[in-house]
Amino acid sequence: MNVEKVEGPFYLLNDDLIKNEDGGKYPEFEGRTVYEVIRVQDGIAIFLEDHLDRFFRSAAYLDLPLPATAESIEDRVYRLIAANQVGEQNLKFILGKTAKGESMLWIFFTQSVYPPKNYYEEGIATSLFRIERLDPNIKLVRSDYQKAVLQERADKRVYELLLVDGNEEITEGSRTNVFFVKGKELYTPPAKAVLLGIVRKKVFEICGKRQIPINETSIPVEWIKDAEGAFVSGTGNNVLPISKIGAVAIPTMDNPVVQMIMADYAEMVRAYKEENKH
Q1: What whole-number distance in Å separates Cα of residue 38 and Cα of residue 221?
Q2: Burial of 230 per CB tally in 10 Å (0-12, 13-18, 19+)
Q3: Cα–Cα distance between 198 and 51 in angstroms, integer?
Q4: Domain ends where: 71, 90, 110?
Q5: What is the span of the domain harbouring residue 83?
Q6: pTM here?
Q7: Which of 105, 155, 211, 229 could form a disulfide with 181 if both were Cys (CB 3.0 to 4.6 A apart)?
Q8: Chain-centroid distance, C-alpha 150
Q9: Residue 216 pairs with which residues in a beta bridge?
Q10: What Pfam families does the database record attribute to this sequence (predicted)?
Q11: Which burial class, exposed, middle or buried, applies to 93 when counting CB atoms under 10 A from its CB (0-12, 13-18, 19+)?
């Protein structure tokens, strides 16, 4: 049963532009699927090349042949943006196999809720959640995980959950990567333990330019009380400061390292949009 929320007048199935009608039939996939979510801002698919690179890696991991090249997918994305006249919204790719065993690539606009401006100015509340994601490097569709996370976020009344594994170590956010600041250095869980987020990659690029050391290391839960700053990164959230983890207040909003990374990321997005105007 498909639970995807498809928005806008059109979606794409492989290379076909299809009208999104009430009660219309969406594709049904057999077996495991991979997905990718891309943020469209001002009609530009932000960091599309990075997303496509990750999407192709996910597809290869599941041995799902992609019925398209990266270039042709890029053309399709901009066809769909134009057809739906979208300024800002999330675009979703799902790749899987139909009942006949054929590869199917479904591209559509999906429900998009972005953090309000005050979350960037005041920071967000988060909570710890003891759950482990299987295959953390790959964007697999897993409805059981999504349901558990949504329920917990609602119960705790927080914007994001920080996942804790069996070693009492923080691995990532439920839909984000997480970074902590101590002194003038950043700490984040190692690449093998997390989904390699595109915004995470951009944070590494910023820190490389700024000569801010990043330590990829295990983050024990007891570190929280000594954190001088913390933030999450993700496609729908950009670089979003954390002001609270459970009952512990984090002085992120006074941290110059976090403020610099937030400003640099915003500039990176602005420059990308400028270079990719269609």
Answers
A1: 31
A2: buried
A3: 7
A4: 110
A5: 6-110
A6: 0.90
A7: 229
A8: 15
A9: 188
A10: Aminotran_4
A11: buried
Instruction: Give me the number of domains the chain comprises.
Output: 2
Q: Which residues contact 248 (CB under 8 A, 6 or more apart)?
A: 224, 225
* Cα–Cα nearest to 170, from 186, 188, 195: 188
* Token output for 104: 């199917």
Same domain, 52 and 139: no
Q: Which two tokens stand for residue 115?
A: 């953090």
Q: 185-188 and 214-216 as β-strands: parallel, antiparallel, unpaired?
A: parallel
Q: Can you give the CATH number for the domain in which 154 is found? A: 3.20.10.10
Phi, psi of 65 (to 5 degrees): -70, 135
Q: Are 233 and 39 in contact (CB under 8 A)?
A: no
- What token pair was written down for 154? 């609602």
3-state DSSP assignment of residue 35? strand
State pLDDT tens for residues 135-181.
655 555 566 777 888 898 889 999 999 999 889 999 999 889 999 99
CA separation for the pair 19, 12 (Å, rounded): 9
In a domain, 1, yes or no: no
Residues 148 and 229 in one domain: yes
